[in-house]
Amino acid sequence: MKHILSIQSHVAYGYVGNRAAVFPLQRMGFEVSIVNTVQFSNHTGYGNWRGQIFSPADIESLIDGLEERGVLSNIDAVLSGYMGDTELGNLVLQTVEEIKLRNTDALYCCDPVMGDTGRGFFVKEELPGFFKNRAIQAAHIITPNQFELSYLSDTTIISHDDVAAACEKLHSTGPDIILATSIHTEETKDHHIETIISHKNGKKYRITTPRIAFNTEPNGSGDMTAALFLGHMMNGEDLRSALENTVNAVYQTLDLTAKSKRRELSIIAAQDYFVSPDKQFSAERA
To answer: What is the DSSP string of 23-76?
Structure first.
């Protein structure tokens, strides 16, 4: 059984961070060691919450404890999402290095959570530069949304060619695989959204789905997407299948969420889709 270390936030109620990533991975059959960077009552989108942010020293202590149990020697992949500051980010990269010393085939999937179209950056001022200049160089897989892809590559994204050019720039700095989410260009159909996968070897695929309407859009879909995609890649699927299986599962989860009129992702109700999604949408060469 393959073993993933997931370093993300935690909420007691709802599904973001590790709460959106760990159960889908477990449902797919992976062992997951969980390091929570915060413990909040709920995600911050509600406007108020309770709980605490763990210091980098707290997180380092947990990592040391895992090392004492011999866990780091058995890790096959590291998944990271939102980071509170660069000190924590440096600790994540240090942990990845230590794991790769023990397992040279271990993967690092970095979701460079920084901001979004229309909202701009929502992290500390130093974090975008950390992702741009350090984190993505260490990653095998990155999962930016359109806003993050544009920033990381210094590319204004208007067309599909712009997406391809942005990915090529980033491939030259390190990551083998880029899963670009929430893509909407001048060529995208109205009321639709695209997800594009790009490999350093030149292969690219695109899948298009309708944009689901919500009264309040649920948080955590990006965290779930990164986890599912990593899981499918670790299961040995090719790029196209991993993309299709990820996007179909995410779409079906969001569809269930909208139909239930929930603000939180319907992750438990959607769990079978994580393993066997209905193939509603197919990918094409991009």
So the answer is: HHHHHTT-EEEEEEEEEESS-GGGS---EEEPPHHHHHHHHHHHHHTT-GGG--
Secondary structure string (H, E, C) spanning 99-132: HHHHCCCCEEEECCCCEECCCEECCCCCHHHHHH
Of 112, 95, 91, 81, the residue nearest 15 (C-alpha): 81
pLDDT for res 255: 97
| Sign of the alpha-carbon torsion through 124, 129, 133, 137 | positive
10-residue averages of pLDDT along the chain (286 residues) = 97 98 98 96 94 94 96 97 92 97 96 89 92 97 98 97 97 97 96 97 97 93 98 97 98 97 96 95 96
Count of beta carbons in the 10 Å neighbourhood of residue 104: 7
What DSSP state is assigned to residue 145?
A: B
**Of 206, 222, 97, 57, which is closest to residue 148 (Cα–Cα)?**
222
- Domain spans of the chain, in order of start: 3-285
Task: Specify the CATH class of 3-285 in words.
Answer: alpha beta
d(CA 195, CA 264): 22
